[in-house]
Design brief:
It contains 18 helices and 8 strands.
C-alpha cells in the first residue's frame, strides 16, 4: 500500500514550575530523509514535510487537550467561505484551557473536524475521552481506542505519531491496533517520534521507530506458532530473513491444519537438512530461537525410522499443544500405518484402496484380539465422528468434544500394546536368514 492513515495525539503541551501549561515549544525537526521543518506541532511537520502520503488523519486526545493549537495558524478562514475560524479558536481556548470547564464539546469537535479537513485536504476524525486515565476509567476509555480500526481509510498502511499526548495513549492505541488488526497481514504499521529538545541550536531528529512494531509483531507470530503450530503470520517475516524457514513453517502449519500427518517424515528430513547448514553469523536472535525450537521441540520429539512411530510421536506433540482433534486423527493414522508396515509394504502407506480392501480387516482382527481393545474401538469411532462433523451413533448418542479428550486419555495403554504386538522390526528379526545369506 502506498498511502497511509495517520494517527496522532493532541496533549496539553509542557508545563512550567507553577504547573501552568506553556503549550508546545517551537522546534526544528529533521526527518530521516534530511528534510527540516520548524513548528510547535509535530503533526504539522509530518504533513508539511510530506514524510508519507497521508489519505486520512485520526487525532486522539482528552476532552481538555489543547485542541485550539490545531487552529493557531488559520483563524482567519483563508478560503473565504462562511464561518469564522477565530470564533471557533476562541471557543476551543475557552472550552479546553479553562480549569472550570469539561473540555471540548461535540459541536466544537464537529466544527474542528471540518476546519482541519479543509486545512489538510484529507478527512480528519477526532476522538477524545476523559482526561482521567486510570484503572477505574479504562472501561470507559478503551472503546474509544478499539473503534480506531474501523476508522482507517481503505487500502492504507498506518503511520502512528507518538510525539504528543499522555504517555499512556500510544500504549492504548498499540493494544487496540494489535487486537483490531489481528490476522490482517495487509496493513503495515510505522511509528514516528519527534524528539523534543531544550537546545534549539540543532535540529531535533524525527525518529523512525517502526522496527519496534515489527519486532512486536514477530514476537506475537512466533508465540502463536510455538503454542498452536499456526505459522502463517510467522512465515511472512521469514521471507527475507530465512527463505528455507519460510517454506518449512508453511508446510508444517499445513500438515497440522489439514491433518496431512503422513507427510511428517518428509518434512523432518527436509528440516534436518535446512537446519544443518552453517549459520551466516548475521541471523537475528528470533531466527536462532525459532531454529532451536524446530530442533528440540519438533524434530527431536518426532524423528523415528518408522512412519508409524513418527505419527504416534506427532500425535503426542499435538496433544501437548492442546490440538486434540488433530492428535486423535493422527493417532488413528499411526495405528493404521503400523498395520500396513507389519503386514504389507511401506509403498502402500496412504493407499486408501489397499487399506480398505486388505489391511482394514487385518487391523480390526488384531485390535479385537487385544486384552484392552475397547479404547481403540472408541478411538476409531471418535475419529470417524470428527471426519463426519460429529454424528450420532445407532443408539442415538451424540458426539461431544469431551469425547476427544477422553478417548486420547484412555487409549494410551491400548496403543502401546498394539504397537508392541504389531512391530515390523520384531517381525523381521524373527525371520530365518535367507538361503545363501550370511553364515550360509
Amino acid at each position: 500500500m502506498s498511502n497511509y492513515t495517520l494517527i496522532s495525539f493532541v496533549g496539553t503541551g509542557q508545563y512550567n514550575k507553577k504547573g501552568e501549561s506553556e503549550g508546545y515549544k517551537t522546534i526544528k525537526y529533521q526527518f530521516p530523509n534530511g528534510t527540516i521543518y520548524e513548528t510547535s506541532l509535530f503533526l504539522e511537520a509530518l504533513l508539511q514535510a510530506e514524510y508519507k502520503p497521508v489519505k486520512k488523519i485520526i487525532l486522539i486526545g482528552t476532552q481538555t487537550s489543547n485542541w485550539d493549537v490545531l487552529l493557531a495558524d488559520m483563524q482567519s478562514n483563508p478560503g473565504g467561505e462562511p464561518g469564522d475560524y477565530t470564533d471557533l479558536w476562541e471557543r476551543l481556548v475557552k472550552e479546553c484551557e479553562a480549569d472550570t470547564t469539561a473540555g471540548i464539546t461535540p459541536e466544537s469537535r464537529e466544527r474542528l473536524e471540518k476546519a482541519l479537513t479543509k486545512k489538510t485536504g484529507v478527512p480528519v476524525v477526532i476522538k477524545y475521552h476523559t482526561p482521567e486515565i486510570s484503572a477505574a476509567t479504562i472501561p470507559e476509555i478503551f472503546p474509544v481506542y478499539s473503534s480506531l480500526v474501523k476508522e482507517l481509510a481503505e487500502d492504507t498502511d498506518i503511520l502512528l505519531d507518538i510525539t504528543h499526548g499522555f504517555r499512556s495513549m500510544p500504549l492504548l492505541v498499540y493494544q487496540a491496533l494489535q487486537f483490531g488488526l489481528a490476522g490482517d497481514s495487509q496493513r503495515k504499521v510505522e511509528l514516528i517520534y519527534g524528539e523534543i529538545r531544550q537546545d534549539a541550536a540543532s535540529p531535533a531528529p524525527a525518529r523512525d521507530l517502526s522496527e519496534y512494531w515489527r519486532l512486536s509483531d514477530i514476537s506475537a507470530a512466533k508465540n502463536l506458532f510455538f503454542r498452536k503450530f499456526d505459522g502463517r503470520r510467522l512465515a511472512a517475516f521469514l521471507h527475507d530473513a530465512w527463505d528455507e524457514g519460510e517454506n518449512l513453517i508453511i508446510r508444517f502449519s499445513t500438515i497440522v491444519e489439514c491433518n496431512l500427518s503422513l507427510d511428517m517424515w518428509r518434512w523432518i528430513q527436509d528440516a534436518k537438512r535446512a537446519l544443518s547448514r552453517p549459520h551466516k553469523g548475521t541471523e537475528p536472535d528470533w531466527i536462532l530461537e525459532l531454529q532451536d525450537f524446530l530442533r528440540k521441540e519438533i524434530i527431536k520429539k518426532t524423528d523415528h525410522p518408522l512412519t508409524s512411530d513418527i505419527l504416534r510421536a506427532f500425535s503426542r506433540l499435538l496433544e501437548e499443544h492442546n490440538l486434540r482433534t488433530q492428535a486423535i486423527i493422527t493417532l488413528q493414522a499411526a495405528l493404521e500405518t503400523r498395520t500396513v508396515e507389519y503386514y504389507g509394504s511401506v509403498d502402500e502407506i496412504g493407499n486408501y484402496n489397499a487399506w480398505d480392501t486388505t489391511y482394514k480387516n487385518k487391523y480390526r482382527t488384531k485390535r479385537d484380539a487385544l486384552s484392552q481393545n475397547g479404547p481403540l474401538c472408541t478411538l476409531e469411532w471418535v475419529r470417524n465422528s470428527i471426519a463426519h462433523g460429529g454424528y450420532k451413533d445407532n443408539r442415538g448418542k451424540a458426539f461431544t468434544s469431551q469425547e476427544v479428550w477422553t478417548a486420547l486419555k484412555n487409549c494410551k495403554n491400548a496403543v502401546h500394546e498394539y504397537f508392541e504386538q504389531v512391530n515390523p522390526d520384531k517381525k523381521n528379526a524373527d525371520k530365518p536368514p535367507a538361503a545363501g545369506g550370511a553364515g550360509g
